[in-house]
Amino acid sequence: MTKIADIRAKTVDELQAQLLDLRKEQFNLRFQRATGQLEATGRVRVVRRDIARIKFVLSERRRSAAQQSKA
């Protein structure tokens, strides 16, 4: 589980790369669940929440950049 402070400390490029890695992992976990090979069932929840945290921080940064450009 990634903490929100750790996510906020990263750059946009790092966050996008981490988001891509997490989405690949999420796909693999879903595939494992469908084939009955999933052992770490709790990992699905952790990955889903980490994706949500990263998307939240990215949207926060987009909003703040848009507000600064208007001002």
UniProtKB/TrEMBL annotation:
The source organism is Roseicella aerolata
Cited PANTHER family: 60S RIBOSOMAL PROTEIN L35/50S RIBOSOMAL PROTEIN L29, LARGE RIBOSOMAL SUBUNIT PROTEIN UL29C
Could you say which protein family the record assigns here?
Belongs to the universal ribosomal protein uL29 family.
For this record, an example GO cellular component is: cytosolic large ribosomal subunit
- MF (Gene Ontology): structural constituent of ribosome
| Keywords per UniProt | Ribonucleoprotein, Ribosomal protein
Q: Which GO terms describe its biological process?
A: translation
Q: Which gene encodes it?
A: rpmC
* Domain of life, per lineage: Bacteria
Q: Does the keyword Ribonucleoprotein apply?
A: yes
Name of the protein in its database record: Large ribosomal subunit protein uL29
Give the matching NCBIfam families: L29
InterPro entries per the record? Answer: Ribosomal_protein_uL29, Ribosomal_uL29, Ribosomal_uL29_sf
